[in-house]
């Protein structure tokens, strides 16, 4: 009897939460998408959806030919092969495959026909600008953070030429090569007019690195600075990365009031033969992050960690340092089972003071599935949490739920970044 009563009183409440979660606009704080002014750098459409590196990793599990045979194919033939193997020869039930189907369905395409040529024809009739609006609307995303690297030879010239910005796209300054491959990066900075030395022994070099960071922060209007880190990253340490962080990156971020987003846990090129799909995951020693947060209380840090096994420790760390903001279920963690586990744990340990998800979309259309799938999980977790409260007689109002969901979907991040 008790259970039935609890169940029936839960239903309208559950619908209300679902409705708020579904209509709250999202600030997508980390993607690999570009302002449409970057033209071909903004990927969209069925072919790019299907050669997404998450799917490339999966197709190799079914192929017997040497890796090179796949890479030698023209892009459209790679796409055909992926479609055949992952959607026709097998059911597309992995998260990355299901994502393609969710996306096509949301765009109004009839997925049950399994007709790739017809899907291609539909996409060929779309215009990129209108498609951006449509995907953002279907995903319920109001702002997209790009990943902007001055070290990317395709991207850099666009910034140098200047262009009319699309206000829906915000910039984040990505500096992995500067911190992680200083030996190779120093000569590039020198070629670009910054007086730096490889040894990192002179004050001048750090000043010049800061000048480089200032120039690019200003040029792109960066809201934060970002680095992904190998799982064996340590701080403090007597290496280039630690010296550059302490001597240039952190002072720059402090001076500009910018958060430094750290993403530990990647093992790059575990299998280089599958190229972009070949990165793996490793357990990180989060003492590095702890040491940074403790030693630099005037710096703001953001973090997302790739290993599932690091998630609890990251939550504990976040409880200790208010200059740390955690975000997202990143890459291999962005599967419903783990998103649910991680989101539930974060809410239980941190309340609403974190950013629940980022899409990491590399293809515009992916916004649709990444956010539709996430909203479903978020709804389930939040229904559970508000129901637990309701059982004590604490009823959350519509406004309170809207406020809370808004925080998880970008509001807490915006407040954390606030330079005022
Ligand atoms: O999720 C991804 O697509 C990865 O390849 C990476 O881009 C990762 O998100 C990163 O930003 O390094
Ligand atoms: Zn990313």
Q: Sheet with the most strands?
A: 8 strands, mixed
Question: CATH top level of the domain at 46-125?
Answer: Mainly Alpha
Q: Report the structural category.
A: alpha/beta
Bound molecules: D-arabinaric acid, zinc ion
Please provide the ordered H/E string of secondary-structure elements: HEHHHHHHHEHEHHHEHEEHEHEHHH
CATH superfamily of the domain at 46-125: uronate isomerase, domain 2, chain A
Question: What is the number of helical segments per DSSP (H or I, 4+ residues)?
Answer: 18
CATH structural architecture of the domain at 46-125: Orthogonal Bundle
Stated plainly, the CATH topology of the domain at 46-125 is called uronate isomerase, domain 2, chain A
Cα-to-Cα separation, first versus last residue: 54 Å
Give the helix proportion (percent range): 40-55%
What is the approximate shape? globular
Strand proportion:
5-15%
Average of the residue pLDDT scores: 96
| Overall strand count | 8
Outline the low-pLDDT stretches.
1-6
Q: Supply Rg.
A: 22 Å
